[in-house]
Amino acid sequence: MTTVSYNIYYAFLMKSKFNIGIVFGGRSGEHEVSLASATSIINTLDKSKYEGLTNLKTGNVTPLDAVFPVLHGTFGEDGTVQGLLDLAEIPYVGAGTCGSAVGMDKIIQKEIARQIGIKVAPSIWFLAKDYWNAPDKIIKDIEEKFSYPYFVKPCNSGSSVGISKAHNRNELKSSIEDAARYDTRILVEKGIENGKEIEISVLGNDDLVLSLPGEIFSSNEFYDYDAKYVDGKSKTVVPADLPQNIVKTIQDNAAKIFKAAACSGMARVDFLVSGEDAFFNELNTIPGFTSISMYPKMLAASGISFGVLIDKLIELAIERGGEKKKLLTSYHPKKEWYR
Question: Is the same domain home to 183 and 316?
């Protein structure tokens, strides 16, 4: 198995005297996207405020005040790196271990959405091993629940890696088998007829900024990996051409799922809009920061430039880190019963 290393870029925030670590690369199907996002962030850093590249090999490493994880997908966006940083008591940008794990788990986040009254597409999920043990039964269960077309997704993946659209039984089987290459749990959702792909950016810890929504016009039948990053033919419109009542619903629901899923710092929330219905599609706790990424684009259209956004995310990370340090981590009972 090929091992992919994590790359760390240390920048120094002169005015606030903060040392910031940017972690990128990682071991996931989104490794290349992570590199592009990190490059965009590093190139956008205000050199009058961020300077002093620290060479780890010298051994002269100044303690970090915060870390900016730019790790898309598993082993980085899913709470693993966040847990490590929590153990090290280093503040970091974005959701904590719980919010990060929920943000990567398509099944759990949609169950949360249902519980708090947000519309989601009809769906069914199952273990990959159950499919291999009884494929005909799983196919029958899906076809009895709702009609074609279906979207078949690995439970934990990003950038549409492993996601397929199935129009018939043969495509459904091949889609499930492809998704099973990436995860042990598979989610199958009913396709939303004429669904517009709408996204919105969330910024903040407790007091949230909700951006104007944007719309994706995919170059392919749906917004898959190639349409996002490779062919360069997909189009985006910010702000999306939507009735104001739909915009308000999307913003309200984005804030609700952000808080219910224990997110903080940032997230991109995706919806499918059909007529008067807005269906929650996905929560992304480390959205892309490439030149074509919607998260910074939507905030820019809402008055927050890329440079200001980076500063704000670091500020939010340090703010939340300070709140965590104030919390008690031990309890002293009246009687020392354990001695």
Answer: no
